[in-house]
Target: Sm domain-containing protein
Amino acid sequence: MSSGQESFLKFNTLSCVAGLCVNHVTTVELRNDSHVTGLVKEVDGFMNVVMDDVEFVDPRHNRMKFSTFFVQNRLVRYIHIPKEIDIVAALPKVLERRKRTKGPPDPSDPAQKLSGARKKIMKIREQRRNEDLINAMKMCENKDAAK
Model:
């Protein structure tokens, strides 16, 4: 993932359904009434599609073969989901991946190691939180003493 926006779109739009087609042969219908059939290699959060071993059919039914083909997101009209993909069973797995990748890393989890710079940032944040708590408590004490 290249950006937070892409990550958000990957798990909060239908591009996660298009991502289920990776490593499957499928058809992508384009907005100009042409279509592309081939092996889906990659789908990003913006729903750009990279395909291999593609047959492109234009609106006049002329056929062209390409070894690699890139479909920009704004050109996609439909993505056919292959019959071997069970969407009902696959979507919870996609959403489970989202839960695992969401939020800050858990320092107690050995699989999620924190870098030294990240530890330093987290330590500074914790110190600031503690200072804010102490200052809030002092303000409450001063308020009570003034009454």
About this structure: DSSP finds four helices and five strands in the chain.
